[in-house]
Design a protein that fits this description.
The longest helix is centred in the N-terminal third of the chain and has 22 residues, at about 80-100. The chain has 10 helices and 12 strands. Strands 2-1-3-4-5-10 form a 6-stranded parallel β-sheet, sandwiched between helices. Strands 6-9 form a two-stranded parallel sheet. A two-stranded parallel sheet has the order 7-12. By secondary structure, the protein is of the alpha/beta class. The termini are far apart. It has a single domain, classed as NAD(P)-binding Rossmann-like Domain (Rossmann fold, 3-Layer(aba) Sandwich). Strand 4, helix 4 (about 135-145) and strand 5 (about 150-155) form a beta-alpha-beta unit. The chain binds NADPH dihydro-nicotinamide-adenine-dinucleotide phosphate. NADPH dihydro-nicotinamide-adenine-dinucleotide phosphate (NDP) binds near residues 108, 111, 157, 158 and 159.
Length: about 300
Amino acid sequence: MYPERPVILILGAGGQVGWELLRTLAPLGRVVGATRQPQAGPWADLARPETLAPLLAEVRPTLVVNAAAYTAVDRAEQERERAAAINAEAVGELKRLAACAGIPLVHYSTDFVFAGDADRPYREDDPTGPLGVYGATKWAGEQALAASGATWLLFRTSWVYGVRGSNFLLTMRRLFREREEVRVVDDQIGTPTWSRLIAEVTAQVLGRALHGGLDLREVQGVYHLSGGGSTSWYGFARALHERLGGPCRLLPIPCRDYPLPARRPAYSVLDNGKLGRVFGIRLPHWRESLQQCLDDLG
Ligand code: NDP
């Protein structure tokens, strides 16, 4: 069904997840990473969805993985149109192009599509209720994807960190060195997820499709993909501090003492059970992945 050496196009190749995908998907075929910079090779600017068609015509991929997104949660409150263009309209256009070319599309979304009032981990079919613009535009992207057409897989993940990019781990590491005291929100509960874990799970699933005879149409749909267990941002910071050390004191605070432009869900733990039931993939506890990531960071 697929060529022996498929061409895998990764959008957002310079992001946390995209960068990990470049390496992790490499054994599966010829990987082409696209950014939004025309001078850096293959490119498309998702804020201008019309730039996607020329990219796909040039690369002629077997499969597209979209790790590009507008992820500035607070800035999105001021930049609704831009966030919507990148997170929703571009996804609709990608889906249309993928359907025309008959190629599958892999996409990512966020725990911020939920309102945070659940009392157990969210399942894929639980009602959504985004509290901010970022979550709302990602939810609109999900809906664009789910409308009929191409074959698609959607992984919803949460609290992504890694060794590069802009993320909580790297921010805390810097603050532990610079500050005497760091105050961290203790009443938002979720699960940190290592960007490499997201890439590895994506690779496992796509490997079975591209080289193992798995028919993606039979497993098409939404999957939750986050670390196991749960914690607060303060709990995450403590785990980092235990390992990284530093003279600074950590103080738990309620989110009302750390006001931000965008509201966040108070509880956004994802239930990863469907990945286990459909693909037999069990996700490690977030602390285990964190240890590995910190080992990697050195
Ligand atoms: P990053 O912000 O690290 O990377 C996003 C990528 O998208 C960057 O390479 C960025 O390029 C690119 N991008 C932004 N705007 C455009 C544009 N107009 N045209 C083309 N590319 C663009 O995000 P993550 O890797 O963390 O996120 C991957 C996925 O996971 C996204 O779908 C995100 O919504 C989702 N997710 C992320 C979470 C997180 O905590 N980060 C939590 C839950 C879900 P550039 O580097 O040039 O800005």
